[in-house]
Model the fold of this input.
Amino acid sequence: MSFVGARRTAQHSVMTTSTPASAKADTVDRNSRFAALSLALALPGDTVLYLLLPMYADAFGVSLAEVGLLLAANRLVRIAGYGFVARFYARHGDRTTCTLAVIAAAVCAVGYGVLSGFWALLPLRLLWGLSFAALNLSTQALATAEPSGAARRSGRSRAFTALGPVIALPLAAIVAYTHGPRLIFGALALFALAGLAMTRQLSPHHAPASSSARRRGLALPNSLDVWSFMEGFTLDGLFIIGLSYLGRDLLPGGGVMVAGALMATRYLGEILLSPAGGSLAERFGAERMLLALSLVTSAALIGFGGGWLWACAAAIVVLRSLQLPLLAPIVVKRTPGPARVQALANRAVWRDIGAGTGPVVAGLLLPYVSTFWLYSVPAVLLAWAALACARPSHEDLAGTAAKSGQ
Done:
């Protein structure tokens, strides 16, 4: 009889300890999902502007040179502003931060629809840069709030985030083709405001603050920073600009419709493949997957520069989507606890630096430099950065901990 009673007591103990853990995991999954959906609803105003501003520069009252500055401004302000955003997030938490960011995104979309000229549009681009930083930081922090399943949540989060651009880009292309480039932004402002229904579902509690949130400046890069920079430089910079530049005479159909379809395909790849990347990271390890996928991506970039345009472009889109959820679980593994928020912000800053310089380098060198060398050299550097991430030195790990307040 005493044995039966002891067994029941043990079973009850297991149930009471497992139930809170399960409830916590469900809460983390739920918050991660709603943060990603709020970003999905706020993001289309920016992605559509990337589509329409270069093609309809005159309608927005800007020159082509000013178009480049406007499209880079949101990334440049994030380089300087991620520290401020991380501190604000640490003080006010997910619901307040994301709510303000969604409202700002709607204001920006309205402005894109009614304002003209460089100096009128520039403040909107700067505001959007900070808004995206807040939404992106919250999305990544919530996906990694529980180390168990972080890679899986990161993959699903990327897929949810891509839903907005996949729907908005083809619709914007059709509306711009039939009614001009301005009308769509009114609809996108309402789209962004719908994100308020998502932010209301987030936890009202403040995110745990860490001492690193009060630090200023950008320290010397470690291996994850270098990889983030090269990933942004090659895939978000050189590849995107090169695809448009090299393929413009080979694409059937015209202009805005084809460009919209291409950009939507990129985000569709994230929906279909980012969850798979997260699952592979859970099974084989995020660092191992980052190394393998980066090496294959480097080979595809070399082929892209060597003239195998469409086959390698398709491969790069697939590989990029698989890689997107890998960095966050690596960061949370090396920088656990509240300090991961600042660590994630640091990685995002370096990716923005790369993604901001990549288009500039592509614009300057594509007309004059062999595309084979232009893509091969960064491809080799990307492979080298991935190797450094897979086998970080003790100094590299110590740098990560130091930058994150550990």
Q: What stands out?
A: The first helix runs from residue 2 to 42. Confidence is low (pLDDT under 50) at residues 6-18, 209-214, 398-406.
